[in-house]
Design goal:
Largest sheet: 9 strands, mixed
Shape: globular
Distance between the termini: 53 Å
Strand order of the largest sheet: 2-1-10-9-11-12-13-14-15
Structural class: alpha/beta
Bound molecules: adenosine monophosphate
Oligomer: single chain
Radius of gyration: 23 Å
Length: about 500
Amino acid sequence: MRFNVLEWLEHTSKKMPDKMALWDEEEQLTYKEYHDKSIGIADAIIKTGYGTKKPIAVYIEKSAKVLASFMGVAYSGNFYSPIDTEMPEARVNKILEVLRPGLVITTRKLAEEFKSFDYHGKFLFYEETDGKEESQEVRDTFNSVIDTDLLYVLFTSGSTGVPKGVCITHGSVIDYIDWVTETFGITDKDAFGNQAPFYFDNSILDIYSAMKTGASLYIVPQKLFSQPVLLLEYLKEHRINTIFWVPSALIVVSKLKALRNVDMTGVLKRVLFCGEVMPNKQLNIWRKFLPDVIYANLYGPTEITDACTYYIVDREFGDDEPLPMGFPMKNTDILVLDEEDHLVLETGVVGELCVRGVGLAKGYYRNREKTQVAFVQNPLNDAYEEKIYRTGDLVKYNERHELVYLSRKDFQIKHMGHRIELGEIETAVSSLPGVSLCCCLYDDKRSRIVLFIDKEIKKDEVNEQLKTMIPEYMLPGKVIIEEKMPINANGKIDRVRLKEYL
Ligand code: AMP
């Protein structure tokens, strides 16, 4: 029974002090160094008199330093919130307005940039903190943290333009990581190749599964994600056997035929993905080259601690079939609710996916209004208070009673009287030859479906092929060729940018 994620770091750093914990292009930290640096940072935080249970922002370029800072914050009894050093100033200011941190961990150099933001609190400079094996003050603070205390606040985009800070506790991360490490059998013999930015919830799986088991975590240099051959060679060189990436990152590899050029046999053991739809056509390329790998589709929003359903790929799929999102994770319950909030159990009936479980966030930081809209009383329980999270994602059960993702509720459109999930059109388009990435949006003004596609092709030609898969009324009214599909900071297709082209 654990109350605090740092018990993992304590345990692992004692059991295997010299094992490599973190790797980035500049430095490598063993588990002992990782632990000692975190204690040193916590000690410095406590000495500033900052107190506990407060937000501390971390403003450092993606590196091992960020993770040591996160753990330092946690050891000090506070919670961290990463701020991307590439983020536009206006958005940083919006985050600072919500978070109101009184302390920022950064470097002397980056602090100069940070001073231009709306921030008047203190700074702690990473390079001026030392590693420390022990500190009684840190130990006392650490022992006072319980599993309902916050570990981090991650900001996601809000529909009103104000970013929402998702509040996640130690207990939620412990529950999730216990499931991950048991389900995928992660041990100290494994090595993770991290793609997800640390302000994106997918990184939780990498960071804490490694810390719990003593696996090594390689922070893959960002530039490699546009050079797939070098990327695969990097994985091979470092014997990275586990990756958990967004589908767009996996597609870059399958699309550019890198798997043909680098022999990856025996390198990868697990290819896990989450964050957006993985088209089977692309997954089939991976499966053809690497048939012995475990592939798993994880699904979930930040508000439920990274993921809440999973599907371990266990059978063949045609290129045009959707890959299921599978089943609820252990200790998580999924409710599919129709428009009247009735439970949907029948095959093929569309409903909104809602979640129950300890993975649920404590809501949005300083935003009760938005919290009350998304985290609501379970409509199936009128006996006591029980919250569920409404994901806004539409799903259905297939004939095997596996969950299948359809689209965001807000991607559901009415066109010529028909209710259409744009995701269904995307699944059909992505199965066409030569297409790797595509995205459908609805142009309300002109009442037409717009398809963005990364293949040089005429509208009539696409529609001729699509006709065999989807009804006439779902055919795109306009096709826009985007050879280089815009990708957002999390690595997913940037729908907001594409919307500007309508
Ligand atoms: P985020 O909070 O940034 O992780 O985004 C969560 C959203 O990404 C979900 O609500 C879904 O709309 C989408 N998503 C996450 N995982 C998947 C998946 N495996 N398949 C399809 N969509 C997904």
